[in-house]
Amino acid sequence: MYQIFAVALLAGPDHSVTPRDELDFSSIHILDGAMATELERRGCDISGPLWSAHVLDTAPHTIAAVHLDYLRAGADCISTASYQVSARGYREIGRPGSDAARALRQSIEIAGNACSTYARENPRRIWIAVSLGPYGAALHNGAEYHGRYDIQFDELVAFHAERFSMASELSADLLALETVPSLEEAQALLLALARIPTISAWISFTCRDAAHVVHGERLAACAAAAAESPQIVAVGINYTAPWHIAGLIAEARIGCQDRRPVVVYPNSGERWDAATRTWHGTTDRAEFGKLARVWFAAGAQAVGGCCRTSPAHIAVVAAARRAAENAEPS
Predict the structure, then answer these.
(1) Which CATH superfamily is domain 20-327 in?
(2) Across all residues in the chain, what is the average pLDDT?
(3) CB distance 146 to 214 below 8 Å
(4) Is the pLDDT of residue 326 over 50?
(5) Which of 136, 157, 196, 317 has its CA 20 to 30 A from that of 177?
(6) Is 80 exceeded by the pLDDT of residue 121?
């Protein structure tokens, strides 16, 4: 089995630095689900270039409600509404880069307030991960779904380093580096991360089949690179069809050589049409729950959901986890 790593964190909810030995990733089993598509389902407009980050300005109370619903569904870790936040993205719409830092801070505050509200109902430990999407997300042209960027490698490192510098001054538990499409971007992220050694993160890849990230590299190669960083606490798969996940868990574990836990949070099963910018197909929450039990059995440390999943999906994942625990021999 994988080893559990105790790692340095960002400043904790009380604005003190969490001691290195207080992160036990074995306590995180249930992640949350989609933020952007759930906000859209609740009536928010996410059509602009900042995607769900627009809602930080227009309806922060709705973001808080989504967080709270995921906690009530059983999530052990919630991710902030900051996937699309970058100084570049804000500058491109005519706003100062400092607004990105302000938005990042606000997203963490909203998540923290939701945790405080939930603590009055249930005092269990909840983790907050700062969601940061790949460079392609800042381009708002779908480039994260293939990873073919027109940018020099050192510029890619600088893009991520700028965001990590903003995050290092804020209060959260760790970073969630999400929807990474290629080995090259993973390497850029790891170099940028190494510039601030107090930051810890999980890194999660988007995959096109049961073995390859969308750019074409084997997930095992990407996982192996990630596992070399002492700052990476887990390797994951997100924004991926659920029927690929079991094979990808095996691929990630081979790459990591079980040196890092594996986390998975696939899409609902619906498909995104980039040309028409619409979702197609249906989702079966009961089937998602059955698959979650398979993923836990395959070695996933934590399971959640990505696009088009909801608190109802996370509730069935939590039920699957409980069933798996009850099935384990004592």
Answers:
(1) Homocysteine-binding-like domain (3.20.20.330)
(2) 89
(3) yes
(4) yes
(5) 317
(6) yes
